[in-house]
Write a structure and sequence with these properties.
2 copies of one chain form a homodimer.
Chain A lengths: L10 H16 L6 H8 L3 H7 L3 H25 L5 H18 L1 H12 L7 H23 L9 H20 L7 H17 L14
Helix pairs in contact in A: 1-2, 1-6, 2-3, 4-5, 4-6, 4-7, 5-6, 5-7, 5-9, 6-8, 7-8, 8-9
Chain A binds a DNA duplex through helix 3.
Chain lengths: ~210, ~210
DNA sequence: AAACTCGTTGACTGACCAGTCAATCTGGCG
DNA sequence: CGCCAGATTGACTGGTCAGTCAACGAGTTT
């Protein structure tokens, strides 16, 4: 797996970045390896010098980014001084910022990997499960601390939380929701509020029936 | 678009059902049209007698099922006597039962269509948007009736709700959660509780600090 | 029974494309 | 310089597969 750049340019990185663009634009299955090579401004064969197959490129993109997220989740959970709600806010914030900074990459990961895990190896399923697990850890901490209720299992709660975030990203990816800086920031708080406090108005606050 | 069966058997239906099985097992992109034909016990060419392309089969499967769901959501929303919470329970129940009764079909729809809407025409995006819209209508009704809070928009709330459910199905599809009758039933209530009441323990109920 | 309709068959083709490979280039080193 | 290692090139191949099509067959009509 050679990595040393001939001149100042890391061609391997160039190919990975080109793949992000191309996979995001045309979809993994609808693009050719030559599209990636062209986008990278590199000869067709060079792609196979650095990667053993088209799928390995996708693999690499996924694993690289996913690991960063797993580490971030673990780091957030380790900050014992934070209340759960803020930990969850940090997690939502991290994922949303990931999309803000690298929308194409996140699009590829969500559209081509996260929901297509059957086409790929069990490797990815394991990694995805780890993310659930990390969030579940945070929830578990909140339950132990008496901040979260016990009626909903940590795993189930983590799933709802992650599901809401992924749906949010999907909505952005498919242009069903506006993508402005303000919206990104607002969404962080909203998703935490929705999941932590729920949608229901507390009975005490409800208007009288004759209202 | 011919439909009349030669003998008692509707070959078109046979092909559609075979496609569900094959798409679910190998994935849309990783199976051949001949796999579908074989599974249906039908000649290769007959597939093209009833459908103009491989994609049209997937189209048909998606639209057929999705429309049923859209109608169900609208029907649930129309039952004015129900409180929002029960409407949402009905929606969650409908989708979960859809998976219980036709796991392969739901797997295909979620894995190949719902999250891959970029590969397909805007037709599907519109339909998916309609589902969000239908749920948002229900939420909107709940807000008008003073049952749900106003701080979270109906669209955003609908997205969280649908996202949680889809993540739940995904977890079943990829075998990350047990799939028993009891689990299916329990999940219906849990997802509504999580989304309506949230995960947080009301402050009043929290144990004392010196607990 | 001849003619017609249309469901049904499966071999075939034409295009596409992932992956290979032999040749070429470039820079470093003795 | 002469040689080597590794980066880079792009034409080529081998296999795959979606979609076509000419022929066949089983009812139906006249």
């Amino acid at each position: 797996m050679p990595t040393s750049p001939r001149n100042g340019v890391d061609k391997r990185r160039l190919i990975l970045d080109a793949a992000i663009t191309v996979f995001a634009r045309k979809g993994f299955h609808h693009c050719r390896v030559s599209d990636v090579a062209d986008e990278a401004g590199v000869a067709y064969g060079l792609v196979y010098h650095y990667f053993s197959s088209k799928e390995e490129i996708l693999n690499e993109l996924f694993l690289e980014r996913w690991q960063i997220m797993l580490d971030a989740i673990a780091a957030i959970d380790a900050r014992d001084e934070l209340p759960v709600r803020e930990k969850l806010y940090e997690v939502a914030g991290f994922i949303i910022d990931s999309y803000r900074n690298q929308p194409d990459l996140m699009k590829v990961i969500i559209v081509e990997v996260t929901r297509a895990a059957n086409s790929f190896g069990a490797l990815h399923l394991g990694k995805i499960r780890e993310a659930y697990g990390g969030i579940a850890e945070i929830v578990e901490g909140g339950r132990r601390g008496g901040e979260l209720k016990e009626t909903i299992s940590a795993d189930f709660a983590a799933m709802c939380f992650y599901g809401a975030i992924e749906q949010l990203l999907s909505a952005w990816i498919f242009d069903l929701l506006p993508q402005t800086e303000a919206e990104f920031e607002r969404a962080k708080g909203l998703v935490v509020e929705a999941i932590c406090d729920g949608l229901a108005l507390p009975v005490a606050d409800r208007p009288g029936v004759s209202g």
